[in-house]
Design brief:
The complex is a heterodimer of chains A (577) and B (290). Chain A has 14 helices and 25 strands. Chain A has helices at 73-82, 129-140, 158-162, 191-194, 217-220, 268-274, 287-291, 333-342, 345-352, 384-394, 426-439, 454-462, 501-509, 518-535; strands at residues 16-17, 33-34, 39-40, 52-57, 87-89, 95-97, 100-104, 110-115, 172-176, 179-183, 229-235, 239-244, 257-262, 279-281, 296-311, 315-317, 322-324, 357-359, 414-418, 443-446, 470-476, 538-551, 554-555, 558-559, 572-573. Residues 1-13, 21-31 and 33-40 of chain A have low confidence and may be disordered. In chain A, the strands form six sheets. In chain A, strands 1, 4, 11, 12, 13, 14, 15, 18, 19, 20, 21 and 22 form a twelve-stranded mixed beta sheet that branches. In chain A, strands 7-8-10-9 form a four-stranded antiparallel beta sheet, with helices on one face. Chain A has a three-stranded mixed beta sheet with strand order 2-5-6, with no helix packed on it. In chain A, 57% of the residues are buried. In chain A, α8 runs antiparallel to α10 and α13 (501-509) runs antiparallel to α14 (518-535). In chain A, α11 links the parallel β19 and β20 (443-446). By secondary structure, chain A is an alpha+beta fold. Chain B has 290 residues and is an all-alpha fold. Chain B has a single domain, classed as Orthogonal Bundle (MetI-like fold), CATH 1.10.3720.10. In chain B, 78% of the residues lie in helices and 0% in strands. In chain B, α1 runs antiparallel to α13, α4 (76-112) runs antiparallel to α10 and α9 (178-185) packs across α10. The longest helix of chain B has 38 residues, at 190-227. Classes of the chains: A alpha+beta (577), B mainly alpha (290). Chain A: Keywords: Signal, Transport. Chain A: Residues 99-487 form the Solute-binding protein family domain. Chain A: Belongs to the bacterial solute-binding protein 5 family. Chain A: Residues 26-47 are annotated as: Disordered.
């Protein structure tokens, strides 16, 4: 998605870019593993070892196989097989101990972590807290270009280290190989949710400068992790071959290996029918045809993600590391609201996604305690009349009688729209949106006359290509509702390049000391959602429903709101199916 | 009297010869019917070929939609008719560009010979050796909003090489005829010789090549659109309708989406070829007389 982008991930677990229609979201927790089943195949009990599973993905992957650097779900899906974070997330979206356990001081500023003994890297090294510290230092390094600075910036001394003023991060102290203490600058209610929890093998990366890491063999060709499967062979953009890692700390995996392979999503039903794919997050438009297959089981789960259509308000100033709102095209709020009213979102979901999706108007997951009740916001129901009214009021009127509105100054007003290629319904789905806007007199056209592949799409959006004006993207969310990482003025992933004083204030307030009071924090997020709902920096389209299709021979698969790759060491293959 | 009547009776003979060619006549009627239907499309169907209709996606043929609807709920009959307009219009325009350029280049090269011939023929070689698809893709990415006109110009300006060669060869042969010498001996100017004596002699070759080019261009539109480099996605054209068959579910379960477009493309190309053959035979009568 496609495609399809980076930045900092703060609060929310992991923010991941995902495809619009093919896969519904990948709300994979960024720096946590998920657990807790919500649906599952097969019964446990008589398991059997052996066999290889093919995991399908619909878009070429970027190949950044290191948690600190990856950007989209394409690479994340591989990482979920080969490595694990040291902390996990429980079903109620709170962070829980995993390989690491912690104690928090009374002032919420000092955390003491202890990790399990005997956890092995895939090259045989034992995992120590040095590896964790190394990961934190890489992300805080001045040369680090990945998107995750947010997840270390709360550590005392990280800022000085990033600015090159310190040789080490003062807030990290190693007590022994299994114990580490981290001090943070301010008490924040979501410190532990945001803290980076993936280790990086320090010895394995010896001699590689941080700026070279994204292109290094350690990341691109022979990544290692602490997870149940190890990378055997990578064919860039095509497949990743993984084999069983026998010294996995939870026990030897049952499968011999996993083949992560890129397929054309249009073929998904026949590929499943032939048994070419064992498991894939299925495009919603293939729902019906997959449902007819006898050898496939479909699992459904609400997704921690939202689809949106963003407006470009400016660009990213890489030097100053902040947004610049210098594009006046969508400055008029009434234009943005009118475009929102003009969209028949429910019709589009029903028509092209088999109703798999839930209308949403604010960027906080409805699974979260911080989601504002629907009656407190404007739901922007499909209302072309209202849209026309708003446009008239804002001065966008058809002055030359061609049925299309000109801008208030009387010049032709054309808006370019970008979206990603995914499933077979993308073309009519996009066309339906364009026609919705055309019906209220707005000349919205497909930028470049065609949909873009996910990586191209996100690259153009992130680099603020001047042709990108209106873009249809998807964010996978993390568990904590803090919008930092996607919504602040210093977030690279703030793709609309929109912010306001009130927006900054509310986001800061949501993680302040006062926010240790859950009710106060909730109210802050309600206020923030009202602000977004009124300002419409992006039209939040819907939350998605994830569909995982799995061949019935594959057993032990569970899905939850963040992922469907849960404990893959327990996956096994049943004979005769 | 005889002189005046001769062409008439020759025309008559040609027409009779053509009429005797069953496949050609049937093809002609078929082509006229298709053209008429496509041209009259706005009056023949009440359905908008582009408008997405969320409440009637992927419907089977019914009384309301004779050939069902596609994945966007668009009526297939209206898409076929409007798609035919796009496809045939592209074919027509491209053929006109090719025939025009090809004839001028071919006649000038063949008639004048010498360095003009060398120059024009090297140009033709260059055009012929251009990687056609790659250039179309490049133009498409440089001028993404160009749509159909840009497609027409690209294909037209790249496609005249073969046409020019055929016309040049025929010109070289005609030039040696005695009536040309006679015309020159009588003091006719170059322009008069070219237009009054040479061009009529090329008519047969011209018409037959014109037909083949038109048929080929329908195929070119269909294949470019199928690959995604032709008519912009979403606009109806026969090639775009074929592209829907890329999805296995459509191919196996929704024949009405792709089969009619397939049959029409095949039918129209075949009938143009039959007509071309008929015309060729009919004209050969005249040529024998000349």
């Amino acid at each position: 998605m496609n495609n399809r982008y980076i930045l900092r991930v703060l609060a929310p677990l992991l923010l991941v870019m995902t495809l619009v229609s093919a896969c519904s979201g990948a709300g994979a927790p960024d720096n946590r593993g998920g657990n807790g089943p919500s649906a599952q195949t097969g019964i446990e009990g008589e398991t059997k070892a052996g066999g290889t599973v093919t995991y399908g993905y619909p878009s070429p992957f970027k190949g950044l196989f290191e948690p600190a650097f990856y950007e989209g779900e394409d690479d994340l899906r591989v990482l979920e097989f080969i490595t694990e974070p040291l902390l996990t997330v429980k079903d109620d979206l709170t962070t829980a101990p995993g390989i690491a356990t912690w104690q928090e001081s009374a002032d919420h500023k000092t955390f003491t972590f202890k990790i399990k003994h005997g956890v092995r890297w895939q090259n045989g090294d034992e995992l120590t807290v040095e590896d964790w510290k190394f990961a934190l230092e890489v992300i805080a390094h001045p040369d680090y270009t990945g998107p995750r600075y947010y997840s270390v910036e709360m550590i005392e001394g990280a800022e000085a280290y990033r600015a090159g003023k310190a040789k080490r991060i003062s807030g990290i102290r190693i007590i022994d190989p299994y114990t580490m203490e981290i001090k943070v600058t301010t008490a924040r209610v979501n410190t532990i949710d945001n803290l980076w929890a993936y280790p990086m093998n320090e010895r394995y990366f010896a001699g590689v400068a941080v700026k070279d890491m994204p292109s290094s063999d350690q990341v691109r060709k022979a990544p290692i992790g602490i997870g149940p499967f190890q990378v055997k062979n990578i064919q860039p953009g095509e497949f990743v071959e993984m084999s069983r890692f026998d010294n996995y700390y939870k026990g030897k995996p049952l499968l011999d290996g996993v083949l992560y392979k890129v397929f054309d999503d249009k073929m998904i039903a026949s590929l499943f029918e032939q048994g070419a794919i064992d498991i894939e997050q299925a495009p919603r438009d293939a729902y019906e045809s997959l449902n007819k297959l006898d050898n496939v089981k479909l699992m459904q789960s609400p997704d921690l993600s939202y689809e949106y259509i963003g407006f470009k308000f400016g660009h990213w100033d890489a030097k100053a590391q902040r947004i610049v709102m210098d594009n006046p095209k969508f400055a008029d709020k009434r234009l943005r609201q009118a475009m929102y009213y003009a969209l028949d979102r429910q019709g589009i979901i029903d028509g092209f996604s088999y109703g798999l999706g839930k209308l949403a108007e604010t960027p906080i997951s409805s699974e979260s305690w911080a989601k504002i009740p629907e009656e407190q916001i404007n739901r922007y129901p499909y209302d072309p009349g209202k849209a026309k009214e708003l446009l008239d009021e804002a001065g966008y009127k058809d002055k030359d009688g061609d049925g299309l509105r000109e801008d208030p100054k009387g010049a032709k007003f054309v808006i370019h729209f970008d979206s990603m290629v995914g499933g077979v319904n993308d073309e009519p789905r996009t066309e339906a949106m364009l026609q919705n806007w055309r019906e209220v007199g707005l000349d919205v056209r497909l930028n470049g006359g065609a949909l873009k592949e996910m990586n191209t799409f996100y690259t153009m959006v992130e680099e603020d290509d001047p042709s990108v004006e209106l873009f249809n993207g998807v964010w996978g969310l993390s568990n904590d509702p803090d919008p930092s990482g996607l919504w602040r003025e210093n977030d690279l992933w703030n793709y609309p390049r929109w912010s306001s004083r009130e927006n900054e204030r509310l986001i800061r307030e949501g993680v302040s000391v006062k926010a240790y009071d859950r009710d106060y924090r909730k109210q802050v997020y309600y206020d923030w959602q009202k602000l977004i709902n009124e300002e419409v920096p992006m039209m939040i389209f819907a939350e998605r429903e994830t569909i995982i299709a799995a061949n019935k021979r594959l057993q032990g698969v569970k899905v939850n709101a963040y992922t469907h790759i849960i404990d893959p060491y327990k996956w096994w293959i049943k004979d005769g199916e | 009297m005889t002189n005046k009547n001769a062409p008439v009776s020759l025309m008559g003979a040609s027409a009779r010869k053509f009429a005797a060619n069953r496949p050609a006549v049937v093809s002609l009627l078929f082509l006229i019917a298709v053209l008429a239907l496509c041209l009259l499309a706005p009056w023949l169907t009440a359905h908008d070929p582009v408008k997405i209709n969320l409440r009637s996606l992927n419907q089977e043929p019914s009384a309301e939609h004779w050939l069902g609807t596609d994945k966007g709920g668009r009526d297939m009959v209206s898409r076929l008719l409007f798609g035919g307009r796009a496809t045939l219009w592209i074919s027509l325009c491209v053929t006109a560009i090719i025939a025009g350029t090809g004839t001028v280049v071919g006649v000038l090269a063949g008639y004048f010979g010498g360095s003009a011939d060398s120059l024009l023929m090297r140009m033709t070689d260059v055009v012929l050796s251009f990687p056609f698809i790659i250039l179309v893709i490049v133009v498409k990415s440089v001028d993404p909003d160009g749509g159909i006109p840009s497609l027409i110009w690209t294909v037209g300006l790249l496609g005249w090489g073969g046409f020019a060669r055929v016309i040049r060869a025929k010109t070289l042969a005609e030039k040696e005829n005695e009536y040309m010498l006679a015309a020159r001996a009588l003091g006719a100017g170059t322009l008069r010789i070219l237009t009054r004596h040479l061009l009529p002699g090329l008519l047969g070759v011209f018409i037959v090549n014109l037909m083949w080019t038109a048929a080929a261009m329908i195929g070119v539109e269909a294949s470019l659109s199928f690959l995604g480099f032709g008519v912009p996605v979403g606009q109806p054209s026969w090639g775009n309708m074929l592209a829907d068959a890329l999805s296995p579910e459509v191919i196996s379960g929704q024949w009405w989406v792709w089969l009619p477009a397939c049959l029409l493309i095949t039918g129209v190309i075949l009938s143009i070829h039959f007509i071309g053959e008929g015309v060729k035979e009919a004209i050969s009568i005249q040529e024998r007389h000349i």
